[in-house]
């Protein structure tokens, strides 16, 4: 059973260049940061997850939190999603937001294309992926799409290799309006959903997928909700509320009285 996970947080701008992002993505043998400032930490992060609610319901909860934090619409709103068109439409309908294709999903496609020509783990595959990533981050997505399609034609590729390259090209072309990474970086906007991926790991995987665990849907949903409250820093407030409601249920007003002697 797949869980739907969402997160809302605030973050200070972090201006970078495409070259700096490429170096951070492909930095393997060095621990230096090449003069980059440390990334700003997400602030006031809240997470939601559900196994039974649909995406629309979870997105509605996140949207309500956004409006609560920014009722006057003064902040710049950014939404990072994967390439699922239905989710992108849903988010854009509910918020006046800058919709960005998560770079983590872009990199999955980049490596797929690289491994068409070079074995996994080889220096040549890394060079191919690095060059393509740099072109994408510079805002040249159209050239990347054109190059992939021309490669299939000029090399007369067929079968699985052609299918992979054309599917990657189609994915980039479909999401090109959400891949203006050069503009996003210049504005200091986030381009990857590391915080949400971290929420998926901390909220779902670390708690729900331990060895030997088996769940009924209702119990799993309850645990996920409690876990989300805990990770959002709301557990103590919720627990006080829970105790008050339980006391009201057990001892409804008008039926019980406390006598002090």
Summary, kept brief:
The protein is mainly alpha-helical and 261 residues long.
Give your account of this protein's structure.
- The termini are far apart.
- The protein has helices at residues 18-26, 55-69, 85-94, 103-117, 123-137, 141-154, 159-174, 181-187, 194-208, 217-231, 235-250; strands spanning 4-10, 43-50, 78-81, 98-101.
- The radius of gyration is 23 Å and the shape is elongated.
- By secondary structure, it is mainly α.
- It is 56% helix and 9% strand.
- The strands form 2 sheets. A two-stranded antiparallel ribbon has the order 1-2. The chain has a two-stranded parallel sheet with strand order 3-4.
- It contains 11 helices and 4 strands, in the order E-H-E-H-E-H-E-H-H-H-H-H-H-H-H.
- The longest helix is centred in the middle third of the chain and has 16 residues, at 159-174.
Residue-averaged pLDDT: 89
CA radius of gyration: 23 Å
Sheet of most strands: 2 strands, antiparallel
User: What is the tally of beta strands?
Assistant: 4
The ordered H/E elements are EHEHEHEHHHHHHHH
Parts with pLDDT < 50 across at least 5 consecutive residues: none
Q: What is the number of helices?
A: 11
Biggest sheet, spatial arrangement of strands? 1-2
β-strand percent reads 5-15%
Q: Share of helix among residues?
A: 55-70%
Q: How would you sum up the global shape?
A: elongated
The CA-CA distance between the termini, in Å, is 56 Å
Report the structural category. mainly alpha
């Amino acid at each position: 059973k797949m869980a739907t996970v969402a997160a809302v947080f605030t973050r200070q701008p972090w201006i970078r260049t495409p070259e700096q992002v490429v170096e951070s993505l492909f930095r393997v043998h060095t621990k230096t940061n090449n003069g980059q400032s440390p990334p700003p930490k997400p602030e006031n992060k809240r997470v939601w997850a559900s196994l039974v609610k649909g995406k629309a319901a979870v997105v509605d909860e996140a949207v309500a939190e956004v409006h609560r934090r920014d009722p006057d619409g003064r902040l710049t709103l950014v939404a990072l999603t994967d390439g699922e068109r239905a989710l992108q439409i849903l988010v854009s309908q509910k918020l006046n937001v800058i919709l960005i294709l998560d770079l983590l999903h872009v990199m999955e496609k980049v490596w797929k294309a690289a491994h068409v020509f070079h074995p996994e783990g080889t220096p040549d595959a890394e060079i191919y992926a690095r060059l393509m990533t740099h072109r994408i981050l510079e805002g040249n997505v159209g050239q990347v799409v054109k190059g992939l399609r021309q490669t299939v034609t000029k090399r007369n590729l067929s079968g699985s290799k052609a299918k992979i390259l054309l599917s990657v090209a189609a994915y980039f072309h479909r999401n090109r309006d959400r891949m203006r990474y050069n503009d996003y970086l210049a504005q200091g906007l986030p381009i990857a959903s590391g915080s949400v991926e971290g929420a998926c790991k901390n909220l779902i995987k670390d708690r729900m997928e331990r060895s030997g665990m088996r769940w009924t849907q209702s119990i799993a949903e309850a645990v996920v909700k409690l876990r989300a409250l805990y990770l959002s820093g709301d557990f103590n407030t919720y627990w006080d509320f829970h105790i008050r409601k339980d006391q009201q249920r057990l001892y409804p007003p008008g039926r019980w009285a406390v006598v002090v002697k």
